[in-house]
Amino acid sequence: MQAEYSAFIASAYGISAVAIAALFAWILFDARAQRRALRSLDARGIRRRSQASAAGSASEAGQ
Amino acid sequence: MTDVPASAKPSRFSILANPTRFLELSGRLQPWLYGAALIALTIGLFLGLTAPADYQQGSTVEIMFIHVPFAWLSMMIWTVMSISALGTLVWRHPLADVAVKAAAPIGAVFTALCLITGSIWGRPMWGTWWVWDARLTSVFVLFLMYLGLIALTRALDEPGKSARSAAILVLVGFVNIPIIKFSVDWWNTLHQPASVLRVGGPAMPAAYLTPLLISALGFTLLFFALHLTAMRTEILRRRVAALSRLAARRAEA
């Protein structure tokens, strides 16, 4: 009885594990990609106003 | 409305409306959610896989400990999106559309897994991989709606532009959720009727009910952890898009 069904049970758990791992990896890589894009924008001096006023208030005051 | 003093402390709801504050809070909450999900899933699935074989279904009952949580999640995620859709349409909450867009792919994966694990369970127990009965068909329709929503929320270049239409699609699609839940009562289905959330209490011995509830809790926590991560990423994506536009304008000037 047990052995007869073990392939069904193993494939149900296996497919689920692979799909959830892939979803997790995709969400993680997407998060990294956006953080990297923000960093590279920041390196080019393109910041949000709220951060620019904190980081570059001196340069803004000069304008 | 007008008697609220301007100096009144903002409610928690409106504090969360500030994406920067949300990023801060969710960043602190995130590792705890993932940790709790891992613990609950380990305990739930261990208890489930060591539970005695069912007298009718044999060891295939082990599929229940993932199939039922996936089914529950497929409906809960659409419900979470429906509440968020109200947030978009009624309160214009800035994070509501972010929540809808981030939840859709996660919901699609869990719904697909619900269909796949159900099919694998159906083959040895029903003698067929698939039948077009009311329960299976209505869940399949839910899966297609997730795919449609993913396409809609990602069709436009500017993130967030599809917010209104996505919210309306989510609310219209919510009609399907009670249809899925009660399909086994309203129609003659090959799928068995409810055995946990039913009038008269769960019809299941504790040896199955306990691992099922713990594993359902684990998968629910996993969804909220993944959803939080995806929402944070979506906020960052919108910042990247806004800053890129700013950079392009500066380059033109």
UniProtKB/TrEMBL annotation, chain A:
Keyword entries, A-Z: Cell inner membrane, Cell membrane, Cytochrome c-type biogenesis, Membrane, Transmembrane, Transmembrane helix, Transport
Transmembrane segments: 6-29
Localization terms from the record: Cell inner membrane
Main localization, broad class: membrane
Domain of life: Bacteria
InterPro entries per UniProt: Haem_export_protD_CcmD
Transferase keyword on record: no
Membrane association type: Single-pass membrane protein
Function, as annotated: Required for the export of heme to the periplasm for the biogenesis of c-type cytochromes.
Family recorded in the similarity comment: Belongs to the CcmD/CycX/HelD family.
Protein name in the entry: Heme exporter protein D
Provenance organism: Jiella mangrovi
Gene (UniProt): ccmD
From TrEMBL, chain B:
Topology within the bilayer: Multi-pass membrane protein
Residue intervals of the Cytochrome c assembly protein domain: 16-191
InterPro entries: Cyt_c_assembly, Cyt_c_biogenesis_CcmC, Cyt_c_biogenesis_CcsA/CcmC
Pfam families hit by this protein: Cytochrom_C_asm (PF01578)
Keywords noted in UniProt: Cell inner membrane, Cell membrane, Cytochrome c-type biogenesis, Membrane, Transmembrane, Transmembrane helix, Transport
Protein's UniProt keywords contain Transport: yes
Function: Required for the export of heme to the periplasm for the biogenesis of c-type cytochromes.
Family matches, as NCBIfam families: ccmC (TIGR01191)
Protein name as catalogued: Heme exporter protein C
Species of provenance: Jiella mangrovi
